[in-house]
Amino acid sequence: MKTLTTYEINGFKPFSELAKEYFPNYATTSASAKRMRKDIQKNAVLRAELEAAHYTMQTTMLSPEMQRIIYKHWGMPKMRLALT
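Structure for DUF4248 domain-containing protein, as requested:
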């Protein structure tokens, strides 16, 4: 299987949606978002890069640049498919 090394970011993405992709095991989207914000705060380099792109603790929509920064630090979220 060939691994893709590039990806395309298409516009803004809700913070809560990306948080759920990174932390899918949390019961609620709110809990996933809280965990993601906590992890961003703990990583000084990631936080500084995001803040330079105008991220705040109240950011609800992630710009393409913010998404790129997160992917650079954490990699792409793992894709999980439900079996039916």
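The longest strand covers residues 13-14.
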